């Protein structure tokens, strides 16, 4: 089982869309995939379900020892309950076999400050020793019970303790971006933050108190699989393959510069990169994007209503789009499918190396 965090502290970079689409495509390719909603906004849970019928949240846990969401799963550790963390009852997509959801809960954010305190004091206060490893333990035992090949974790846009914990207990991570100024700024910010998190993770993994906890903090250094760029416009010129428009290409170049001069250098120094030959063998050049997914336009609203990714939309069965509009959308659907299929194959190839 490979545990992959999808993270960027900048909002609006399509983290949830990326997680859902990539998870679906991995399932199409024959993998058993569990997507985990660790963003208290629960957008991934909403996307997975489409329209939620009724006024009650369908994943509220009726029994404290039979959790149906991520918040209730870790409650024994955070609230010192007299029972152990149990696997979560996950939800399989009725439209894509092999794709499962570990639902989110808005109450997960209530544990943020407590987790931050435990990160600092768990080595001196034994009462906190079970908290730092709780999220990882809940996700891992749930994945193991369901024979999951890939776990994809959707995270909130913040540099808080929950995200720090989730990323530093993952096997790997992907950084989604948008072609704009603030994504370039975010990359330079992450180049400063991630090495600090990595250093903290090493200390936590070697801490004797956390090693002896009921939910031990794992000894792992997450590896960078690549970055993705989403939501840009392409244009074909002179019968050549469609490429980003001139305006967007300028931001592609700025992102590439920030990635090469700041992020990759920092990750290399913190041992958060795979061997260079692993990227080359997987066709995932570090100097390029893991995936380039253009603008989804009006298709994303349709996809959300259907609880499907854009590339799984059947225009004839699912929509009223016909004629020129339908032809234009079909080209886009095919392009998105090709992008995610290529990206999923690269993820499989990269994670096969460790």
Summarize the structure.
Helix content is 45%, strand content 12%. It is α/β, with parallel strands linked by helices.
Question: How would you portray this structure in words?
Answer:
With 354 residues, the chain is of the alpha/beta class. It has one domain (2-351): P-loop containing nucleotide triphosphate hydrolases (Rossmann fold, 3-Layer(aba) Sandwich). Helices cover 45% and strands 12% of the residues. The chain has 13 helices and ten strands. An eight-stranded mixed β-sheet has the order 3-4-2-5-1-6-7-10, with helices on both faces. A two-stranded antiparallel sheet has the order 8-9. Strand 8 and strand 9 form a beta hairpin. Helix 1 crosses helix 13.
Describe the protein's topology.
Elements: E1 2-6, H1 15-28, E2 33-37, H2 43-49, H3 70-78, E3 91-92, E4 99-102, H4 112-121, H5 134-145, E5 150-154, H6 161-168, E6 172-177, H7 181-206, H8 208-211, E7 223-230, E8 234-235, E9 243-244, H9 246-269, H10 276-281, E10 291-293, H11 299-306, H12 315-318, H13 323-351
Parallel strand pairs: 1-5, 1-6, 2-4, 2-5, 6-7, 7-10
Antiparallel strand pairs: 3-4, 8-9
Q: Which short descriptors sum up this protein?
A:
354 residues; alpha/beta; Rossmann fold; eight-stranded mixed β-sheet; two-stranded antiparallel sheet; 13 helices; 45% helix; 12% strand; globular
């Amino acid at each position: 089982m490979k545990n992959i965090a999808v993270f960027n502290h900048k909002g609006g970079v399509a983290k949830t869309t990326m997680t859902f689409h990539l998870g679906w495509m991995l399932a199409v390719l024959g993998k058993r995939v569990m997507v985990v909603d660790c963003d208290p906004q629960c957008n991934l849970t909403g996307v997975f379900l489409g329209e939620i019928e009724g006024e009650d949240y369908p994943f509220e846990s009726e029994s404290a020892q039979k959790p149906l969401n991520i918040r209730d799963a870790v409650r024994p550790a955070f609230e010192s309950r007299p029972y152990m963390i149990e696997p979560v009852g996950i939800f399989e997509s009725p439209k894509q076999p092999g794709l499962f959801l570990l639902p989110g809960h808005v109450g997960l954010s209530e544990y943020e400050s407590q987790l931050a305190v435990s990160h600092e004091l768990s080595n001196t206060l034994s009462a906190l020793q079970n908290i730092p490893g709780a999220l990882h333990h809940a996700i891992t035992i749930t994945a193991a019970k369901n024979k999951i090949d890939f776990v994809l974790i959707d995270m909130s846009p913040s540099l808080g303790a929950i995200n720090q914990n989730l990323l530093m207990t993952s096997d790997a991570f992907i950084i989604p971006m948008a072609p704009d100024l603030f994504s370039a700024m975010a990359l330079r910010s992450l180049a400063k933050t991630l090495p600090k998190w990595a250093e903290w993770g090493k200390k936590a993994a070697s801490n004797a108190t956390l090693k002896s906890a009921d939910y031990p903090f794992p000894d792992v250094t997450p590896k960078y699989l690549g970055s993705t760029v989403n939501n840009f416009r392409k244009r074909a010129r002179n019968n050549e393959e469609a490429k980003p428009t001139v305006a967007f290409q300028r931001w592609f170049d700025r992102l590439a510069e920030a990635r090469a001069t700041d992020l990759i250098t920092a990750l290399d120094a913190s041992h958060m990169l795979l061997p260079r030959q692993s990227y080359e063998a997987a066709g995932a050049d570090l100097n390029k994007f893991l995936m380039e997914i253009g603008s989804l336009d009006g298709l994303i609203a349709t996809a959300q209503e259907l609880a499907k990714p854009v590339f799984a939309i059947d225009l004839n069965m699912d929509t009223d789009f016909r004629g020129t509009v339908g032809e234009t959308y079909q080209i886009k659907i095919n392009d998105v499918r090709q992008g995610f299929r290529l990206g999923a194959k690269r993820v499989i190839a990269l994670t096969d190396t460790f």
